[in-house]
């Protein structure tokens, strides 16, 4: 049994995509980030960076004590290795998959996240910041579009790289992007959206729609953390 500490963010969706694809038994443990659940001591024992998602694997390969994992990319890699699914066994395929997983973790996710922040949530609209992150998001879309020019999925076969990237493309309109400008992404996006596991994963998220973030009420929790809060 996998315990998934979860909220309805792109990083949270990555893990439900994987779990629904593999039918691994799992339990959702909601962590309402707008209410501050991410700062509860019991969650920090699992995720010291006070961010979702995190997992606890109660039945790790080889037995023994439960294993906890935080950071969405690390979780995807852990689950892929646990199940032997959605990561190639051959060296070259594995390298191709992992470099695109890390591309999302180090590039698309942080840049799109800043795009969301300055476009949607910042109390002051700063044109330089908005343009900077909208343009960088567009550049990353172009990189992905080029990668998909000769293949169905990012690393060939559907993999944890696609699962990591897809949820960050879902809010493309919020990011100031148009999928028709990136036809290879548009084709890839529609294919993943139609997968039964993707439909199930996003249906799980819909169950929490009544607890959607109130940014004004939760601004300090979400955006005003500092070194002094990590104590």
From TrEMBL:
Superkingdom field: Bacteria
TM ranges: none
Pfam family, one: GST_C
Cross-referenced Gene3D superfamilies: 1.20.1050.10, Glutaredoxin
InterPro entries assigned to the protein according to its UniProt record, in alphabetical order: Glutathione-S-Trfase_C-like (IPR010987), Glutathione-S-Trfase_C_sf (IPR036282), Glutathione_S-Trfase (IPR040079), Glutathione_S-Trfase_N (IPR004045), GST_C (IPR004046), Thioredoxin-like_sf (IPR036249)
Domain GST N-terminal: 1-87
Residue span(s) of domain GST C-terminal: 90-213
Similarity annotation: Belongs to the GST superfamily.
Protein name per its UniProtKB record: Glutathione S-transferase N-terminal domain-containing protein
Species per Swiss-Prot/TrEMBL record: Trichocoleus desertorum GB2-A4
């Amino acid at each position: 049994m996998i315990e998934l500490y979860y909220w309805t963010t792109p990083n949270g969706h990555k893990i439900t995509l994987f779990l629904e694809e593999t039918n691994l038994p799992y339990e959702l443990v909601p962590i309402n980030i707008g209410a501050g659940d991410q700062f509860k001591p019991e969650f920090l024992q699992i995720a010291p960076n006070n961010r979702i998602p995190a997992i606890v694997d109660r039945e790790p390969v080889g037995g023994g004590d439960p294993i906890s994992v935080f950071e969405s990319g690390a979780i995807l890699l852990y689950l892929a290795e646990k199940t032997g699914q959605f990561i190639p066994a051959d060296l070259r395929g594995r390298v191709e998959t992992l470099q695109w997983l890390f591309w999302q973790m180090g590039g698309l996710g942080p840049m799109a996240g800043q795009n969301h922040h300055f476009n949607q949530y910042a109390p002051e609209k700063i044109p330089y910041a908005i343009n900077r992150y909208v343009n960088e998001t567009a550049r990353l879309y172009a990189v992905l579009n080029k990668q998909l020019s000769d293949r169905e999925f990012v690393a060939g076969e559907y993999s944890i790289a696609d699962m990591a990237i897809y949820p960050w493309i879902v809010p493309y309109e919020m990011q100031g992007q148009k999928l028709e400008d990136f036809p290879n992404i548009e084709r890839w996006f529609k294919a993943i959206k139609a997968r039964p596991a993707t439909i199930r994963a996003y249906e799980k998220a819909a169950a929490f729609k009544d607890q959607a973030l109130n940014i004004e009420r939760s601004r300090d929790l979400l955006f005003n953390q500092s070194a002094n809060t990590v104590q």
